[in-house]
């Protein structure tokens, strides 16, 4: 009950904050952000800039506002060398906003500048700050009637959604875009969209679907020049390496990584900002599978620093999950505990930073506006209210994290990291009288595997089978190890035919798992659908018994469809 109250309180807090931001965003129609004095900001930055940063500021100040339009591409390009400097993104954002405010830019120039501002805010870890220029980009694109520009803006918005872990929603946006093959620019957008779709599939544990998507990317190579294509090819190879690793094809993963590293050495452009990071992370991840522990030890601090500061939450999870697995394999409980503390601290810090950004962005805008006395009182109220919300949210987050961590220990099977029988009994009791499907799975001939190859191999089989089930199910359904070699999956709000298809996907995937030993692992199962006075647990168990007694490697069900 306490957890439910905490969750509801959290939803209310986040909803209030989100509503405020959306309301402010939707009611801001001016293309430029007039509420911030970027000229003053640029002057302040010029007092703390590095040599190259100061040179960029000086070069920009030589232009008068009537020259911005004819030189906007050069102005934007001049920022590239300082993009990785401490103040580089802020300097670039200020310069481009000044050009946008004062330069009387045409439509294409405005779109160029808004796109660059969003990128700079990404580099400055200001994810909320990316939303405003992206929405303005879409607004201008719609007014122009140019379908390619509209599609580009919508795709950029989908990318922002992924930074907030909205992978499924981002894919819906990307798939809703009406792509054409009428020009090279459309083909380039399709390339970026396909890579993003595949990366999002990897983020939600669907590597096979990611591989299927990645097979379609090479057809657009002709739209690029040689150097630009190499940039995308590096990222494509890196994603393939990650996907092959997830499905257990380690040799193919290694080959793709080697090719990506070789291509990266020849790469001279930076269209994709995160490709260097992705390659490092995949190399780190594969080192565990290849038992290259010296590489893990030598690279772990570098990768943890990347994981702690990157905007890509997916990258953070890849690094930390690799190290968690490494310390478990080494039976190093002290380092595992310390890493868990660090991970929780990073999550807390990011949550707090998100609220700070959310609040400070809007309050700065309000403070720079010419407000009357009533508005000033409203601003004071907002400040007080949001400070209170921030404090409550931080306390709420800490309590939820503690509760969740305790629940993980209580309800998780230590070997397979599936949910355990205790959690199964609680969850099954909650859905037994509702519409659901009950799938029970059993590893065929498991006793013979233990007897022939030993319990270490038996444990490896359990771990890999559980991992494969989890990969197929993703975050949408739960898997429980209820004893020995038996696993259960509970389906709710899923059509019967989809349940049958998922069950078959699990059976086929387990059957195709590669093994270092001379053995073949298959599973059998029973799938029962709820109905009037039906005990799905009992009926699924009977179907499993029939499957084991007959051919094995089969899943029987009692669907009427």
TrEMBL record:
For this record, the Gene Ontology CC terms, alphabetical, are: plasma membrane
Q: Where does the secretion signal sit in this chain?
A: 1-19
Which residues does the UniProt record annotate as the domain GGDEF?
Answer: 434-561
Pfam families listed in its UniProt record: GGDEF (PF00990)
Q: Which SMART domains match?
A: GGDEF
PROSITE patterns attached to this UniProt entry: GGDEF (PS50887)
The UniProt GO MF terms for this protein read: diguanylate cyclase activity
Which UniProt key words apply to this protein? Answer: Membrane, Signal, Transmembrane, Transmembrane helix
Q: Which InterPro entries match?
A: Diguanylate_Cyclase, GGDEF_dom, Nucleotide_cyclase, Rev_trsase/Diguanyl_cyclase
Top EC category:
transferase
| Biological process according to GO | cell adhesion involved in single-species biofilm formation; negative regulation of bacterial-type flagellum-dependent cell motility
Its transmembrane ranges are 379-401
The enzyme's E.C. designation? 2.7.7.65
Against NCBIfam families, the record matches this protein to: GGDEF
PANTHER family noted in UniProt: DIGUANYLATE CYCLASE DGCC-RELATED, REGULATORY COMPONENTS OF SENSORY TRANSDUCTION SYSTEM
**What is the name listed in the Swiss-Prot or TrEMBL entry for this protein?**
diguanylate cyclase
């Amino acid at each position: 009950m306490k957890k439910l109250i905490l969750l509801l309180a959290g939803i209310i807090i986040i909803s209030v904050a989100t509503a405020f931001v959306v309301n402010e965003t939707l009611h801001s129609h001016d293309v430029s952000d007039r509420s911030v004095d970027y000229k003053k900001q640029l002057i302040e930055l010029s007092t703390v800039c590095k040599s190259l940063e100061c040179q960029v500021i000086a070069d920009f100040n030589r232009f008068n506002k009537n020259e911005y339009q004819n030189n906007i591409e050069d102005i934007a390009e001049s920022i590239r060398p300082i993009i990785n400097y401490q103040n580089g993104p802020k300097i670039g954002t200020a310069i481009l906003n000044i050009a946008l405010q004062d330069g009387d830019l045409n439509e294409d120039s405005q779109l160029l500048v808004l796109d660059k501002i969003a990128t700079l805010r990404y580099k400055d870890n200001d994810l909320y700050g990316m939303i405003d220029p992206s929405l303005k980009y879409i607004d201008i694109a719609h007014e122009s009637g140019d379908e390619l520009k509209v599609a580009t803006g919508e795709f950029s918005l989908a990318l922002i959604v992924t930074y907030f872990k909205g992978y499924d929603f981002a894919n819906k946006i990307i798939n809703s875009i009406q792509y054409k093959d009428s020009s090279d620019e459309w083909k380039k957008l399709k390339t970026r969209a396909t890579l993003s779709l595949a990366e999002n599939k990897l983020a939600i544990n669907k590597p096979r679907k990611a591989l299927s998507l990645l097979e379609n990317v090479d057809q657009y190579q002709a739209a690029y020049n040689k150097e630009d294509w190499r940039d995308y090819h590096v990222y494509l190879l890196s994603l393939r390496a990650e996907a092959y690793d997830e499905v257990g094809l380690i040799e193919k993963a290694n080959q793709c990584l080697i090719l990506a590293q070789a291509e990266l050495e020849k790469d001279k452009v930076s269209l994709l900002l995160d490709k260097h990071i992705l390659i490092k992370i995949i190399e780190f991840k594969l080192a565990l599978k290849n038992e290259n522990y010296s590489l893990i030890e030598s690279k772990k601090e570098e990768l943890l620093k990347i994981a702690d500061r990157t905007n890509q939450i997916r990258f953070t999870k890849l690094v930390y999950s690799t190290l968690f697995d490494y310390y478990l394999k080494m039976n190093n409980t002290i380092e595992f505990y310390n890493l868990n503390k660090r991970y929780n601290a990073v999550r807390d810090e990011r949550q707090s930073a998100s609220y700070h950004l959310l609040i400070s962005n809007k309050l700065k805008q309000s403070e720079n506006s010419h407000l009357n006395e009533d508005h000033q009182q409203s601003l004071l109220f907002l400040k007080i209210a949001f400070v209170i919300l921030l404090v409550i949210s931080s306390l709420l987050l800490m309590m939820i994290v503690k509760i969740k961590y305790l629940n993980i220990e209580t309800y998780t099977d230590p070997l397979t990291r599936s949910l355990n029988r205790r959690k199964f009994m609680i969850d099954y009791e909650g859905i037994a009288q509702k519409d659901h499907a009950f799938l029970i799975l059993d590893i065929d001939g498991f006793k013979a595997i233990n007897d022939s190859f030993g319990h270490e191999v038996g444990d490896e089989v359990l771990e890999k089978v559980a991992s494969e089930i989890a990969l197929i199910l993703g975050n949408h359904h739960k898997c429980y190890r209820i004893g020995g070699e038996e696993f259960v999956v509970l389906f709710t709000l899923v059509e019967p035919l989809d349940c049958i298809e998922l069950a078959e996907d699990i059976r086929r995937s387990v059957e195709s798992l590669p093994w270092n030993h001379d053995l073949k692992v298959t599973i059998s199962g029973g799938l029962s659908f709820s109905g009037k006075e039906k005990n799905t647990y009992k009926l699924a168990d009977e179907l499993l018994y029939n499957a084991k007694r007959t051919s094995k490697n089969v899943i029987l069900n009692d669907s009427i469809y």
